[in-house]
Design a protein that fits this description.
Blueprint lengths: L6 H4 L19 H10 L8 E3 L4 E3 L3 H7 L1
Antiparallel strand pairs: 1-2
């Protein structure tokens, strides 16, 4: 688990809502992905877990175990 997450990691690529945008993966800029997520919050990967210094996007059991 890293302290900073990439914008690509925050984007819900597997969500049905992201289907129209999947061809952008690897070519869209961070700013473009942030704009898409701001306009369509369903594109933000969930759940989001943070302890104030680290953040995890999406459910990852191992990362969650580190928080406990």
């Amino acid at each position: 688990m890293s302290e900073l997450s990439s914008v690509d990691e925050m984007f819900a690529w597997k969500s049905p809502s992201s289907r129209p945008y999947r061809e952008l993966r690897g070519t869209a800029t961070d700013a473009e992905l942030v704009e898409l997520m701001a306009n369509e919050p369903r594109l933000i990967r969930r759940p989001i877990l943070t302890d104030g210094s680290q953040i995890v996007f999406g459910f990852k059991q191992g990362a969650y175990d580190e928080f406990i």
